[in-house]
Amino acid sequence: MITGRIIDDNNEDLSGVTVINMSTDKKVYSNSLGMFSIEASSNDELRFVKEDFRRQSKRVLTDGVNSQLLIQLFQIPKEIEEVKIVKRLTGDLEQDSRIVAKVDKGEIVRDAVGLPQPVGKMREKPAEVKQVLLPILLGNLNVQGAYDLISGKARKQKRLYRYDDLQEHIAWIRDRVEDDYFTKAGIPADRISEFIEFSFVAKPQVRTYVKAKNLSGVLLRLEETIPLYVERLKKSGK
């Protein structure tokens, strides 16, 4: 069991930090004192993630010693945005999606000049069992594919890709919906990303709409999961 404390760049305790064991996918959160504890094995990588902070990674038990960790996260500098007059929500989902949506200036510029959008992601494709075994039956050996399967590289790649996709989909919503939309519904600002991830599990259609870049559909499903999450917070006393 690895324990530790997380602080910010002012040496203040940092709560609500997501601590992930990248080898097991286990996840915990730091408490109000910045403390956390998580199960880990020798040389496991722990990743520390919090909105508006640069992520950190740390390999543990590399020398066999289970000492308490001290992790410092540094805040990402932000430009101060102009003051906006926020319109009240009307109940019309199509109209409200425009009210709460943030303006993507980069997308406006790309549309104006006609820049092509990237197709897919440049990723190394993880080895698949059938793609390795079938050539062996035909007398051919895919050495790299066999090594990736045996060493666990393919499994780790798939896990990393799932995690990166999850963070990208959460960021897609955060980049397009003002925090006030969530906080006014009773969701603490430091738990917005956690709520979105909860919504992906409770209502998988949320993520389907994200992949389709359909903000109205996302908001429709989020409206269904907000009461569930708020009730969960009340029961946990947080």
Question: Could you characterize the architecture of this molecule?
Answer:
Helix content is 43%, strand content 13%. The chain is of the alpha+beta class and 238 residues long. The chain starts with a strand and ends with a helix. α7 crosses α9 and α8 runs antiparallel to α9. It has nine helices and seven strands. β2 and β3 form a beta hairpin.
SSE map:
Blueprint: E1 2-7, E2 18-21, E3 27-29, E4 35-38, E5 45-49, E6 56-59, E7 69-72, H1 93-100, H2 105-113, H3 129-137, H4 143-151, H5 153-174, H6 179-183, H7 192-202, H8 205-211, H9 215-236
Give the terminus-to-terminus CA distance.
24 Å
Give the neighbour order of strands across the main sheet.
3-2-5-6
Most strands sheet:
4 strands, antiparallel
Shape: globular
Strand tally is 7
Roughly how much helix do the residues carry, as a percent range? 40-55%
Which structural class should the secondary elements be placed in? alpha+beta
Beta-strand percent range: 5-15%
Summarize model confidence as the mean pLDDT. Answer: 78
Pick out the low-confidence regions: none
Radius of gyration: 21 Å
Q: Give me the number of helical elements.
A: 9
Order of helices and strands: EEEEEEEHHHHHHHHH
